[in-house]
Design goal:
With 173 residues, this protein is of the alpha+beta class. The chain is built from six helices and eight strands; from the N terminus they run βααβαββαββαββα. The protein has two domains: 61 residues, Arc Repressor Mutant, subunit A, CATH 1.10.10.10; 81 residues, Gyrase A, domain 2.
């Protein structure tokens, strides 16, 4: 029995490919965590060395979305770093996006606010609520598709329900 033709090994460098936003952002976090990167152009080049097809405009949007800031590098130059804590604008934007994409309904129990989400999305929405650090919210408990929001006082429950319903409708809070 004769063996079939041998497969020829691919030669040359891997072909560049388009990356998803999540993949680009993960790689950007890795790059700036291990190498001093001072400009978007340097970041574009580092991503291209990883065989990703990217443009400066795309990287610019990624930098903004990640909330990267410039910090002194110690040699008189500056480098991109992740912020210690996301800006309030980014936190609000993340909550608004999670609410409009994942929340199905908002209701109230006697003392709690109940938020129903798409399956598997409750943790993302609850984390975004917690990151808001609202004074009138003690915290959240998330399951797979349900979140319990614990108001600091019973009297603020109705205003929280209204706030969450506005978020779901895409209106500012």
């Amino acid at each position: 029995m004769a063996a079939g033709p041998a497969r020829r090994a691919r030669r040359g460098p891997p072909v560049p490919r388009e990356a998803t936003r999540a993949d680009r952002e993960r790689r950007i976090r890795e790059i700036i965590g291990t190498h001093p990167v001072g400009t978007q152009e340097e970041l574009v080049e580092a991503l291209r060395r990883q065989r990703l097809t990217v443009t400066q405009a795309t990287v610019s949007r990624d930098v903004k979305r990640l909330g990267l800031v410039k910090a002194p590098a110690g040699d008189g130059r500056s480098r991109y770093v992740l912020p210690d804590r996301p800006s309030p604008i980014d936190v609000r934007r993340r909550l608004r996006q999670a609410a409009t994409e994942y929340v199905r309904s908002v209701d109230a129990g006697e003392d709690l606010v109940v938020i129903h989400t798409l399956t598997g999305r409750a943790n993302a929405v609850a984390a975004a609520i917690d990151d808001m650090r609202w004074d009138d919210v003690v915290g959240t408990v998330a399951g797979d598709d349900t979140i319990l929001v614990v108001p600091r006082r019973r009297a603020v429950r109705d205003s929280l329900v209204l706030r969450f319903r506005r978020l779901v409708g895409g209106r500012p809070v």
